[in-house]
Amino acid sequence: TKLKVTMVAWDRYDATVITAVNNFLLKVWNSSTGQLLHSLCGHDDEVFVLEAHPFDQRIVLSAGHDGNIFVWDIDKGTKIRNYFNMIEGQGHGAVFDCKFSPDGQHFACTDSHGHLLLFGFGCNKYYEKIPDQMFFHTDYRPLIRDANNYVLDEQTQQAPHLMPPPFLVDVDGNPHPTRYQRLVPGRENCKDEQLIPQLGYVANGDGEVVEQVIGQQTNDQDESILDGMIRELQREQDLRLINEGETLPNPPLNRSHSVNGG
Question: Domain 5-127 carries which CATH code?
Answer without folding.
Answer: 2.130.10.10
